[in-house]
Structures are given as C-alpha cells and as structure tokens.
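Hi Y.,

Following your request, here is the sequence exactly as I used it, all 498 residues.
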Amino acid sequence: MDIRVEQGKAEKYPCELLLLFSFETPEPLEGPVRDVDLEWKGFITRLMEQGDFKGELFECRLFHTHGALPARRVLLTGLGKRGEFDLDKWRGASSKAGQFLRDSGIKELAIPVKGFDGLSEEELAESLVTGLLLGTYQFNEFKTQDRDKIKRIEKVVVLGETAKEKEALAEGVGKGEIISKAVCMARDLVNGPSNQITPSALAEKAREIAKDQAMEIQVLDVAQAEALGMGAFVAVAKGSQEPGRFIILEYNKGKGMDTIALVGKGITFDSGGLSIKPSEKMERMKDDMSGAAAVLAIMQVASRLKIPLHLVGIIPATENLPSGKAYKPGDVLKTLSGQTVEVISTDAEGRLILSDALAYSLRYQPKAIIDLATLTGACVIALGDYVIGLFGNDESLLKRVEEASAKTGEKVWRLPLWDEYFEYLKSDVADFRNVGTRSAGAIIGGIFLSKFVNKRPWIHLDIAGPAYIEKDRPYTPKGATGVGVRLVVQMLRDWQHS
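Below is the corresponding structure, written out as tokens. Let me know if you'd prefer a different format.
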C-alpha cells in the first residue's frame, strides 16, 4: 500500500473514492464531512435524517456522487457515540473502512484528516495508518491458487487543507507506517510454518535487520551457548535436529544512553518435548516464538524512529521436541546464573530458555529488562485472548507499561508476584523446580523468571492469550497479531518524557 500526503480540500479533490468519518446522530457534522456535505448540497445530512446512515461505530455505507463532487464515490464510516470516542475506535474505524473498500475491489482512495477535540493531525494520521495497514493485513505467502483474486488497496492519499496540516500529517503517517509494517513483519514470522521459520531463519531475519539498521549482532550456536554455561537453553535445544540459535542484537551501542534489554521467547515449535502436548491444535504451536518476533520488530522500529536509547534484543531460539537427545522430567539443569532447576515438565521450556536469556541480559547492566513470552496457558484462562498478563518488580516501570497500554489499545492487566507463591517451586534436589501446581500457573511462571533478573527493574509480559487469535478483531485479522510491538515501542518513545 502506497500512502502519500497531499494538500487539498476534500470537497474539491478529484479521486476514485473519498473516505469520510462521522459521529453517530444526532451529533452535527463537522470537519471534512461537513465541508463535503455543503458542497453536495446537504446530501449526507439528508441520508442521516432518513436513517440511511446513522454513524454507528464501524458502520460503512458506499455512495456514488454522479458528478456532484470531483470524487466518483464516497464511503461514509461511523465513529459511534462522540462521548465514547478515542484513538482506538479511530484505528478500528479506519480498519473497517479499509477492509470494506478492499473487499469491494477499490484500489485507490483519499482520506481528509483534520485535528479535533485536542487530537492533533499527527496523532490522528498515525492511528489512521495503523488501523488501515493492520486491518487490511493478509497472510497468503503459501497460497498458490487464485492468487489473481487476492484484493489489495494500492494507493492512499491523506489530505490536509494547509501546508502546516500537511506537514503534521506526513509526520504521523511516517511513524504509523514504520510501526505498522514492523507489526506486520512480526505477524508474518508467527504465521509462518515452523518448517520455514526455524531458529536459523530467525537468526537470518535478525541479521537482515542489523544490516539494514546498522546494528551490532551476535549469533551463538548451541556449542557456544554451552561453553558459556547456558545449561537450560542448551537442554531444550538438544532435543531438536534444527540447531538452536541464541541471538543478540544491539542498537545505539556505546553512546552513553539508558540501556534497556528486550528478551523474547523464541520457541519456533513447541511439541511439549517428552511431556508431549495433545495432538489437537498442536499446529498452533508455531506461535510460541511470538515474543521473539515482537523483539525483532521493536528493534527495527526503534532504529527507524531513532529512539534515543541503547537497546539490547536477546532471543533464545530453538524448537522443543522429543528425541533420544531430549531433556527429561527429573533432570537437573545448571543455568547461566549458576542456579539449578529440577525439570518437572519439559513442556515448561519457555521459562528455561528465558532464564538463561535474562541472566545474559544482566551483562549489559540495563536500567530495565522487558521480556515478552507466550509463557502460560494459565494466563489465557485468567485473562482471555485479548489481554496481556503484566508482571514486574518495579512500580514506575509497571506504570510506564500501563500508560503505553492506554495509548495503544493493547490491553494489559497486572498480576502479583508475591513471595508466598515461591513455595510451589521448591525442589528436594535442586534450587527450584520449573513448574509448581496447576494453581496460579501464570503467576508461578512469572515468579520463576523473577529469580533470574537479580532484582533489576524488570517487566514480564505474558502474551499467550493475544499472540494468536481465532476470531477477527477490529484491526487484527484472525491469526498472529504482532501483540506487544506497539505497546513496547510506545513505552520506549515515552521513556525520556516520564
């Protein structure tokens, strides 16, 4: 999708289709839709009075102008009740409009955008583009039949009336494109089948990003990880014939900026290992590297937006499979931190590989550590498919995440890390076990990880629920969502101002 910004008035602009937004009746028309209505001799007002378009949230109605306007057609899209409006509804409305137009076979359109209610042109443009790009996302790389029937919007013009508005819109469009394209990249990686998206493929993608964005990169193989003492990561990796990779990306190295470590769980396929999962829905387990995909995307965005922070992206990448070399229940593993873990279930492998990655991140003496992981099914039971489980040991860091959540619409909910829960992880033969009881599974997973951050400010985002969804949401088609990318990017953008 080619998105451009031009200066012009909506009612005078010749185009294939003009996309206009309106609040629900009886709110008066305002901004570009009012200007078009005046030029159209009250046509939109009459439509609304007759009930042919009510402005209800995500309502879409297409009309031909029959020469009454320079635009050949107009799509009216509802923003819902004015008092309930926010940027997330704006993203959803632009997404629904984009889907409607794409499915109608429209390839080109123009969208006038004007600031209102304290929302600037830049903010509105960024959210508009986010909704449009994320809402019209499709994953069809592996489809060979009927490719000529795949519909796409090819060109979008965002219109500002003045040179100043045009400049602000261009700023917002640019940021929205950078972030949304990275989210789509993360979705592609997660949607990709595990015979294609291997640990080596993740390492290759990381090298590509490093080269494009002039980042430092290091990729350790299993033997190198073993030599460093990463007993937990190595134990999981040895069960698969696909070689594991421990990936370290570094942006703004040596520039004296605050250091933040981003750690992403990179299990490219999770069978459960010897504690094997049921076969039903096991094909979904290609999504167990959603945290890794998010970290790659965040690193790319940070570089393209020139965020003034020293970021270290750490991705332990491996499959978790049963084989003659696989680790076993009852094994005791020595982690990079020196602590020992008794394996109770090989299907709690994510926390094992993350334990070594979190311990490795301490070498950079970060101001904050953020990990993203599809860690526990228990988090899905607790919070459902739309909410990220938020854990952490630092109040100001937790608040930063919650503030970013309010801006991006990626919902988070705090869960506790109380010391009493550590009782569940006590082992008779090692420092602790890798799982506790069935109770409080998400919390116990978080407690386990907390033992490897050495009291550094740390956030754990359990994205098991929203990483992959079975039902379309306003700007998130079913499948991989790229969750966490916009949330963490927003937090990093706001870092200097908090």
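The mean pLDDT is 97.

Thanks again,
Q.
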